[in-house]
């Protein structure tokens, strides 16, 4: 059997910090450790570095001529463990996500490569970010997340260490921190004092009690982490942030990403989502939707402001897009808290 290795050394994506020595070390590790564990010892491989992933190193790995995999490098052992726990949990309930086929959390590997390693199946799907999100795709995503959110718990937070108490304190602290961060960066709040925003949340935080249980949420949902296959099947990836949260938080994040200002798309998504949930969930939603929508808008304004200020600076087109989303979120937030 051939042990030929192919690596796109001359096609390393711009912005990816990876050296020739790192690639050579990784190739050797894959041959000696990963392939035997996958039952493919001695197979040829093709390794393609990518710029995907904000916190993890991501490589596309082809074993032989047809076995497509994704190899991830984790700087944090906690994130790798969270990924493994989430993978087992989602598989138990039949929620579509890539299967992790190999994981290595040894300190020896961390010292050698600089990261802990996992290897998962590569899904033959397209990120929503790269497609035109039409009606059938929106309804498929709405139904998928309604099912995910039907998995509930009386505790909140990560699957590894869910908490019984303190969610209100946690959320209000995040709100104050986000408003302070925006103010410190020079963000203007036309016609509204930043203290007014915090006071609005404090005055309306009783809405937090409206949701009786916490729902399983992706935790880092965006249009890059949702794949749609050729037969309109929805698959979520990068699930290491999986956690229990009030479902309206993720609902409004999805609404923002998938529908933006399109009222018809918003109604369509909302209708399909709540058609796939018990009627009691909608009653809970009505009592708290204004509070959680405002919270998500604040989160988006903070997030896109951070993207604008990041180093290295984003390119001109990306910066314009971030400004657009930040202003959209900020304007909606101000119109809510000023009403």
Task: From the structure above, extract its key features.
Aminoglycoside 3'-phosphotransferase, Chain: A, domain 2; 10 helices; alpha+beta; four-stranded antiparallel β-sheet; 339 residues; six-stranded mixed β-sheet; globular; 17% strand; 2 domains; Phosphorylase Kinase, domain 1
Describe the structure.
The protein has 2 domains: 5-122, Phosphorylase Kinase, domain 1 (2-Layer Sandwich); 127-337, Aminoglycoside 3'-phosphotransferase, Chain: A, domain 2. It contains 10 helices and 13 strands. The termini are far apart. A hairpin with a 4-residue loop joins β11 and β12 (234-236). It is globular, with a radius of gyration of 22 Å. α5 runs antiparallel to α6 and α5 (167-184) runs parallel beside α9 (279-309). It is α+β, with helices and mostly antiparallel strands. Helix content is 48%, strand content 17%. The strands form 3 sheets. Strands 1-2-3-4-6-5 form a 6-stranded mixed beta sheet, sandwiched between helices. It has a 4-stranded antiparallel beta sheet with strand order 8-10-13-9. Strands 7-11-12 form a 3-stranded antiparallel beta sheet, with helices on one face. The longest helix has 31 residues, at 279-309. The model is unreliable at 9-15 (pLDDT under 50).
